[in-house]
Amino acid sequence: MRRTLTSDEVDAPGEHLELTVPAALEAERVDRGVALLVGLSRAQASRLVEEGRVRISGPVVRAGSRRLRSGELLEVDLTGDLPLGPAPAPAAPTVSGPSLVAAVIFADKDLVVVDKPAGLVVHPGAGNRQGTLVQQLVALFPEIAAVGPEDERPGIVQRLDKGTSGLMVVARTAAAREGLVSQLAARSVERSYLAVVHGELEADEGTVDAPLGRSQSHRVKMAVVQGGRHALTHYRAEARSSLLLPVTLVSCRLGTGRTHQVRVHFAAIGHPVLCDDRYSKPSQLAAARAALPGLRRPWLHAARLGFTHPVTGEPMLFSSGLPPDLAETLGPLGLTSPQAL
What we know:
Blueprint (H helix, E strand, L loop, with lengths): L1 E3 L11 E5 L9 H9 L3 H9 L3 E3 L16 E5 L25 E5 L3 E6 L16 H8 L24 E7 L2 H12 L4 E9 L6 E5 L2 E3 L7 E3 L7 E10 L5 E8 L6 H8 L13 H10 L8 E9 L6 E5 L4 H10 L8
Parallel strand pairs: 1-9, 7-14
Antiparallel strand pairs: 2-4, 3-4, 5-6, 6-7, 8-13, 8-14, 9-12, 10-11, 12-13, 14-15
Helix pairs in contact: 1-2
């Protein structure tokens, strides 16, 4: 069955940070180090240095090219407006922190494969400047800091939403990044998810083929829009139940990799992901939270990742079991997890 649709957060600024320079940033430029550690753009970090708002072990530093040394005390004054635009609006505290650490399940000199927990933000951004996956990986693999054109997203070739758990690959070298980006563009990377969605799907398998773009009415959301980017999601119903509420456990294989793709596609066909507070209807979200009061994130897990090693040419395939917060809901929902995707 082919389904085609053709239309339609560390604290906010106002703080004085004191950070110890990690070994991973030994000999790094001050402006780049500030950008990575604080979660600003390179241009913002450079302006902070120029404005005398950065100190190293006491003295003010005004040269962004000054090299950092491991163990130095880096002080960054974020009181007042950030340069190059207004400060982001205050946001609710994030759950990202030392207790949320991605497990490294494979690493060689070219790449790293991690299993990201739900709640961990992939890269720094407004409201989430510290404790991100990028910063954890740079601390473990310093060379990642120099990979790729974006200071805030070194090594990142794909990403998972904050509330989504599962597998990601990160490049450690420029050559690996180029190869992985090429495979993603060619749609040869295997990315498979498990999700529980509202309602009992009629078809055992199908495809949602619907273009995605930014919602015109809610700019923080994605939507099915005419003229949007091509997006393709293949799915298979693994189990159905109406024990607590009508739900279906589905396995999904991405034909493309768009922002919020699985979440938007299933919402578009009337079966949003369980406990998705962005794309569920209010009544659906209320029913899901009443049935599963302990689950506070979308029931979505990146369970399988396959690609060709960008340097050696070796086939690579990884799988990730359900994390406890999702696995514990299967019994109450009357569902059984598939043995394999």
